[in-house]
């Protein structure tokens, strides 16, 4: 009998060890890791080109910006090499930059189409534009991400580079999906806020399209769809939380958009299963600094590309940036 219990205890310990050292790291990697979408990957696939909504366009010159510059820079903290397009304003002396930040499984090819909106509305006379490839995307280095926590370091690094190279010190952050969460984190994460203040970098407004608005609620819902038991998800999320300096509870709009209440425009669709509208609406309820535009039936990051919504989307962004 003693031998049986000894074997049973050893077996139980082995199961626990396997769970902790194999299962939990795997589930955490589901949160932090994803395929890198390079230019070649996107441009070699006609379905991806259609999904990105870029047609035959390949860089800002194809949208009427022949004087754009491709620049290399680094993220703020960990030396990862990044790349992006800087598009100078049509007027001299402009010190405000509109930074357009893509989301997960994307790159700057997907966000460059908004240059058409900027030119059509004449916002190119008010803003320079910067469109980066954040880490693990496009022409930037491979790297793990953390649902916007580390993207925020890339955005801050971009602002620092734009100040040093082009004299830019005021910014509007226009983010999509995980890039929207990252934009909101940028103006709230204490170390990044302190760095920006010391460098004289100021963010005036946020535009958030199809945003990831609560990382716990959204990943919890996805884990349930995948059939992952709740106790495994909670243990995995706690382990992930340690990766992001125990800041996971702050990665939600009810905190981020209230803690630093910048003027914020949110554009979202209730046909979005990736970042559900119900989670977003709960997060922004009662926030007076937030203007939300709902696009009925629109899918994730597909608002501007739907013909019936393109004019309304354009007008909402134009009006918000001209206030």
The CATH architecture category of the largest domain equals: 3-Layer(aba) Sandwich
**Beta-strand segment tally:** 8
Mean pLDDT: 91
Reported for the largest beta sheet, the result is:
8 strands, mixed
What is the multimeric organization of the chains shown?
single chain
Low-confidence stretches: 1-22
- Overall morphology: globular
Task: Label the structural class.
Answer: alpha/beta
Helix content: 40-55%
Total domains, how many? 2
Termini separation comes to 79 Å
CATH topology of the largest domain: Rossmann fold
Order of helices and strands: HHHEEEHHEHEHHEHHHEHEH
Largest sheet, order of strands side by side? 1-2-4-3-5-6-7-8
Report the sheet-strand fraction.
Answer: 15-25%
Number of helices: 13
The first-level CATH class of the largest domain is given as: Alpha Beta
Q: What integer value in Å does the Rg equal? A: 21 Å
CATH superfamily of the largest domain: Alpha/Beta hydrolase fold, catalytic domain
Pfam families: Abhydrolase_1
Domain AB hydrolase-1: 97-226
Transmembrane segments: 7-28
Keywords: Membrane, Transmembrane, Transmembrane helix
């Amino acid at each position: 009998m003693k031998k049986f219990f000894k074997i049973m205890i050893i077996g139980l310990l082995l199961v626990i060890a396997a769970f902790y050292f194999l299962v939990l790291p795997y589930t955490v990697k589901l949160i932090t890791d994803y395929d890198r979408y390079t230019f070649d990957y996107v441009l070699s696939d006609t379905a991806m080109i259609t999904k990105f909504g870029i047609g035959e366009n390949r860089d800002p010159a194809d949208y009427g910006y022949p004087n754009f510059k491709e620049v290399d820079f680094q993220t703020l903290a960990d030396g990862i090499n990044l790349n992006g397009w800087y598009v100078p304003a049509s007027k001299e002396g402009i010190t405000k930059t509109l930074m357009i930040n893509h989301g997960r499984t994307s790159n700057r090819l997907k966000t460059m189409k908004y240059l058409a909106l900027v030119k059509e509305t004449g916002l190119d006379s008010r803003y320079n534009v910067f469109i980066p490839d954040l880490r693990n995307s496009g022409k930037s280095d491979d790297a793990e991400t953390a649902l916007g926590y580390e993207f925020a370091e890339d955005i801050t690094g971009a602002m620092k580079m734009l100040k040093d190279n082009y004299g830019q010190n005021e910014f509007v952050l226009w983010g999509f999906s995980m890039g929207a969460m990252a934009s909101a984190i940028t103006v709230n994460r204490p170390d990044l806020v302190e760095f920006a203040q010391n460098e004289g970098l100021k963010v005036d407004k946020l535009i958030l399209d199809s945003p990831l608005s609560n990382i716990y609620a959204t990943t919890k819902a996805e884990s349930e769809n995948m059939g992952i038991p709740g106790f495994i998800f909670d243990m995995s999320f706690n382990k992930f939380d340690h990766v992001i300096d125990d800041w996971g509870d702050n990665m939600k709009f009810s905190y981020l958009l209230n803690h630093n209440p910048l003027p914020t425009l949110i554009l979202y669709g209730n046909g979005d299963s990736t970042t559900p509208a119900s989670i977003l609406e709960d997060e922004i309820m009662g926030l007076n600094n937030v203007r939300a535009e709902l696009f009925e039936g629109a899918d994730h990051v597909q608002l501007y590309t739907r013909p019936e919504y393109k004019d309304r989307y354009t007008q909402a962004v134009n009006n918000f940036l001209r206030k």
